[in-house]
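Worked example

This section walks through a single chain of length 55. The input is the sequence exactly as stored; nothing has been trimmed or padded.
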Amino acid sequence: MTENEIAKAMVDSAFKIHTMFDTGLLESVYANLLTTELKKRYLRAVGQQAIPSGL
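Given that input, the structure is written out below as C-alpha cells.
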C-alpha cells in the first residue's frame, strides 16, 4: 500500500465517522472509532498510548 493509499484510507475513515456520529462525542470515543475503522481496512492502528511519567 502506498503512502497516498494509506492517507486516503485515513481521511475516508475519519469522514465516515464524522458523517455517522457528527459532533458531541468525547475525543477518546472518536479515537477508538477511528482505530477500529482503520483496522477494518486492514491497516495497523494503535489507540492512544500513555506517556511514561518522569519525562
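What to look for: The two ends are 35 Å apart (CA to CA).
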